[in-house]
Write a structure and sequence with these properties.
CATH architecture of chain B: 3-Layer(aba) Sandwich
Distance between the termini of chain A: 53 Å
Structural class of chain A: alpha/beta
Largest sheet of chain A: 6 strands, mixed
Largest sheet of chain B: 6 strands, mixed
Order of helices and strands of chain A: EEHEHEHEHHEHEHEEHHEEHEEHEHEHE
Helix content of chain A: 25-40%
Number of strands of chain A: 16
Shape of chain A: globular
Oligomer: heterodimer
Strand content of chain A: 15-25%
Strand content of chain B: 15-25%
CATH superfamily of the largest domain in chain A: Thiamin diphosphate (ThDP)-binding fold, Pyr/PP domains
CATH topology of the largest domain in chain A: Rossmann fold
Distance between the termini of chain B: 29 Å
Helix content of chain B: 25-40%
Radius of gyration of chain B: 15 Å
Strand order of the largest sheet of chain B: 2-3-1-4-5-6
Number of helices of chain A: 13
Number of strands of chain B: 6
Shape of chain B: globular
């Protein structure tokens, strides 16, 4: 198996899934999160990658550039002069019928903003890993989810990753989700800056052939370079046109994505041994109160939840993987009947103490339930502030107290804030 | 929390290769089919300034992604950090401390005001000067960590360095690093 020169050591694994007679070939590597994404990009072998470096995403482009130079991929790499151009070139190449990727972080994503809407409006299946990093000011290069939350209404699918393994897995699956004819929307793969992107972790890389077969070939349904089937891309569509209808169809595509994401996640399980859904549930079958979180924090929360459950405490956790489309119906089902729910947000909406985006959307999702759980919001980790177990434990205490007493002391809380 | 995870904190100065040592330890753990993390203290790294980096190592999958504040093992790569940074912060009485020093364990124990913690010393500076001809104490300290934890046998560690460093460095450099590692295995002393 060809690998980047940063990949040093490995363990080869072979396993047979129960039931299905499918052999899984994979290699465990000791690599940082950015290299896990680069490995997925190598296996996807996109036709075009246009990118501009920004901390902490830089290492993805750096490693991938080396792969291009070493001839490990056939990708045409366009080194552009800004993220605005990166997304513009990506849109152009995608409209021309290529399989296209880029990646960014923070200010870079913000600088792409107007193009993000064009990519989704043109229904271009672009895949973009975004290494979550705070937005300035003050200048801060560390992790929070404020950057991708700024694009939450841009009609991009958003898949959050707990760790490097999931960043790799999500990147491979993103291609299949984006290119599905019922979806045709761009997909953002999110991973936590530094905590995941720059930390060495154990990552199972499936074998090249299995990855390549899984991803498959891309046949663009509407290529600009297909003179037999001429199409107009990016036309003016004003008062008497179909703008409103196009936007309605976009919403339909996003709704369609729910089932596609589930199907692709199941199919991926057959080649990797790791199946994916809209979210992961821990102990939800008998939980009375639960945490909801995204990204690396969900891993740390899981440690505490499992430890608490071993002491007989009826706590559970939902790790939200898919933020767009927001799985409102499925989450409402999973949380129905609970006494209390604590939602962790690594960003804020600045709506006047309404809470973070996950909280607001989940609260709205539960409104129609007959028995709504009490809800508490914890905003944490802005600008990379650490989330140690002790702080989660504090939140767990407050959550348990709310479940027992039937009332929430304070709805929106700031965890780890110096005050 | 879950103490089937071994947590290590490395203290060094920028440029002494501690991050490489932590990374190499993670890669070595993989040869034992273990789970691991290696991460630096994120921030501007300046040559000579005190830095920290970290490892988590476990036989089971690790899903803790917060910083390490209560390490099981502390490794002091640079002797001049004693008295400059709080080496023992968060270390419990059953913790292990491994120090690069010319002093004997009794002196260091007194200096760090240690209670029940286990203390190991090794003169990694001397070893690196002798083997590598320069002050690069990271590989000897890695050797000391391996000896103390029993994570890899000496021969396994040597094989790993041959394979891994062999891809990146000239033969002479690889040989000298192996010499440094072997000597640290021999020289590290408890009380």
């Amino acid at each position: 198996m060809a690998t980047s020169n940063k990949v040093i050591n490995n363990q080869t694994n072979q396993g047979i899934l129960n039931g299905d007679n499918i052999v899984i070939n994979s290699k465990a590597l000791a690599i940082v999160g950015t290299d896990a994404v680069s490995e997925a990009m190598r296996q996807i072998n996109p036709d075009v990658v246009a990118a501009y470096p920004i901390t902490p995403q830089t290492a993805i482009v750096e490693t991938f550039s080396q792969m291009v130079a070493d001839g490990l991929v056939k990708t045409h790499l366009v080194a552009v002069e800004s993220e605005h151009s990166a997304m513009s070139a990506t849109i152009g190449a995608s409209a021309a019928g290529s399989r296209v990727m880029t990646c960014t972080s923070s200010q870079g994503l913000a600088y792409m903003w107007e193009l993000l809407h064009i990519a989704s409006g043109l229904r271009l299946p672009i895949v973009m890993p975004n290494v979550n990093r705070a937005l300035s000011a003050p200048i801060n290069i560390h992790c929070d989810h404020g950057d991708s939350m700024g694009a939450r209404d841009a009609s991009w699918i958003q898949l959050f990753s707990e760790n490097a393994q999931e960043a790799y897995d999500n990147t491979l699956q993103a291609v299949r989700i984006a290119e599905n004819p019922d979806v045709l929307l761009p997909v953002m793969v999110l991973l936590d800056g530094f905590i995941i992107s720059h930390s060495i972790d154990r990552v199972e890389i499936i074998d090249d052939e299995a990855a390549s077969n899984f991803v498959g070939e891309f046949h663009s349904p509407y290529s600009l370079l297909d003179p037999k089937n001429p199409v107009t891309v990016g036309a003016f569509d004003s008062l008497y046109g179909y703008f409103f209808e196009f936007k309605r169809q976009q919403e339909e595509a996003m709704s369609n994505a729910v089932n596609v994401i589930k199907d692709v996640g199941q199919e991926y399980g057959k080649i990797s041994g790791r199946s994916y859904g809209l979210f992961e549930s821990v102990g939800m079958e008998d939980a009375e109160f639960a945490f909801v979180a995204m990204g690396s924090a969900a891993g740390t929360i899981r440690e505490l939840v499992e430890e608490m459950r071993s002491r007989g405490i009826p706590v559970g956790m939902i790790k939200l993987r898919v933020f767009r489309p927001f799985p409102a119906k499925e989450l409402a089902e999973a949380l129905s009947g609970l006494k209390a729910v604590a939602v962790f947000d690594r960003s804020n909406t600045f709506a006047g103490n309404m809470g973070g985006p996950v909280f607001i959307e989940l609260r709205s999702s539960l409104y129609d339930l007959q028995q709504r759980p009490l809800m508490i919001n914890y905003i944490y980790g802005l600008g990379g502030r650490d989330l140690p177990i002790e702080l989660i434990n504090k939140a767990a205490g407050e959550l348990g107290e709310a479940a027992r007493s039937g009332r929430v002391k304070q709805i929106v809380n700031y965890l780890g804030l110096r005050e | 929390m879950a103490k089937d995870v071994m947590e290590i904190r490395w203290h060094a100065r920028g440029g002494q290769g501690a991050v490489t040592a932590a990374k190499t330890l993670a890669e070595m753990s993989l040869t034992k089919n273990m789970y691991f993390q290696a991460f630096p203290e994120y921030g501007p790294e300046r040559m000579g300034a005190p830095i920290q980096c970290f490892n988590r190592i476990s036989k089971k999958k690790i899903s803790t992604y917060c910083g390490i504040t209560q390490p099981d093992i502390v490794v002091v790569v640079d002797p001049s950090l004693l008295g400059v940074v709080d080496i023992t912060a968060g270390v419990s009485n059953d913790g292990i401390i491994i120090v690069n020093t010319t002093d004997n364990p009794q002196t260091i124990r007194k200096r760090l005001n240690l209670n029940g913690q286990k203390l190991f010393v090794v003169d990694a500076t001397h070893i690196s000067l002798k083997s590598l001809g320069r002050f690069m104490p990271n590989i000897p300290m890695l050797g000391a960590v391996l000896k103390v934890t029993g994570l890899l046998e000496k021969e396994e560690a040597i094989d790993f360095l041959k394979e891994s460093f062999g891809k990146k460095f000239p033969v002479k450099v690889v040989e000298n690093n192996i010499k440094a590692l072997e000597e640290a295995f021999r020289e590290v002393k408890g009380e």
